[in-house]
Give the backbone structure.
Amino acid sequence: MNETLKTIHSLRSIHGNFSSQEIKDDDLKVILDACVRSANASFRQSYSIIAVRDRELMKKLSGFAGSRTLVFCVDFNRIIDIASHMNHPFTADGVIQFVTGSTDTILAAQTAAIAAKSLGIDSLFTNGIHRGNMNRVFELLDLPDEHCFPLIALVLGYPDKEPDHLKGRLNGPGVIHYDKYHKLTADELDELTGRYDDPDNHLWLNDIWMKEGFEHYLDWFFKKWSTRGGKPEGKSQMAEILEKIGFM
């Protein structure tokens, strides 16, 4: 492997146990300068990145705290403001703009994680900013009322202890398709179920499923994990916010 591939294959999530060691400002600038090099639609870079330095604020935002948290927002306000300043019409309303902006945003976020890891800095992607009352994120970060949505948070820092393994990933049938979509056969579905059950593959969230007596990890995943919290009644909070800020 070359150094780039080694960095990608060494990516890991640090779940909350970051040390007190701080990231150097120069390293943060390197990460930010790298992530804005990611691909984007029509050279618009339809995102904003909020670099949070206060650990207590990080906890209020997502429940996790490291040395820095980068909140990546789908954001068309800069583009709208430039258009208005130059007396040009521009609308960012609708789901197409949101999907396009989300693609730009996630590409920048993943590039930031890779750049950080190349500097020896670990990370955690979290959608904790979407849990609870999401309006707190808008208030805490003073986000615009329209056309700006906090999509993902990336916590950066150094672990206070080394994880004992890297999480596994699926990389065969059902994930990779050649030339056209391949619907899994019953035998392939059984094989995938077994891959999840094998502890050497590290495809579990945790080992609770064994302690609770489930035959397969995916029995626990579908019966317990996927149904936690129940199905929300009516329109979800996220849908209401996306509608309010102009993306639905």
User: Anything to note?
Assistant: Residues 95-118 form the longest helix (24 residues). The chain has a mean pLDDT of 95.
